[in-house]
Amino acid sequence: MEEFHKKLKTDIEKKVGFKILTTTEASVLQNLLLEKNIYDISLSTIRRFWGLIPHRNPLKKTLNALAAFLGYKTYLEFVK
Predict the structure, then answer these.
(1) How far apart are CA 38 and CA 47, in angstroms?
(2) What's the CA gap between 31 and 75, in Å, rounded?
(3) Alpha helix (H) ranges present in the chain?
(4) End-to-end distance of the chain based on CA atoms, in angstroms?
(5) Is the torsion defined by CA of 42, 43, 47, 53 positive or negative?
(6) What is the DSSP letter of 57?
(7) pTM to 2 decimal places
(8) Rounded-to-integer distance, Cα 9 and Cα 76, Å
(9) d(Cα 10, Cα 53) in Å, to the nearest integer?
(10) 36: which residues sit within 8 A by CB, 6+ positions away?
(11) Residue 73: CA atoms inside 13 Å, Cβ hemisphere, count?
(12) CA–CA dist 7, 80 (Å, integer)
């Protein structure tokens, strides 16, 4: 599954046009998510997913929300 998490990160970074390497960039991503009416992800969750703070396995709702940002209905659809 980790390979799909990396792909999800890469695809999101391509869509927004920058890499998520700092809290500032994570905050910009959070604002972009909010513009798309994706409210399920906190700044801490984004920072955790990108490894800016200690990492743990993401919740299904986090993966689904990030996949939705890319236009998929669910994370499972993104993986397929």
Answers:
(1) 16
(2) 20
(3) 2-16, 23-35, 43-49, 60-69, 75-79
(4) 12
(5) negative
(6) P
(7) 0.91
(8) 15
(9) 18
(10) 68, 69
(11) 2
(12) 12
Residue 1 pLDDT: 63
For the stretch 4-47, pLDDT in tens is 999 999 999 999 999 999 999 999 999 999 999 998 899 999 99
The tokens for 23 are 């809290």
- At 22, list the tokens: 């700092």
- Contact yes or no for 4/79 (Cβ under 8 A): yes
Structure tokens at 26: 């994570």
Residues 41 and 45: their CA atoms lie apart, in Å, by: 6
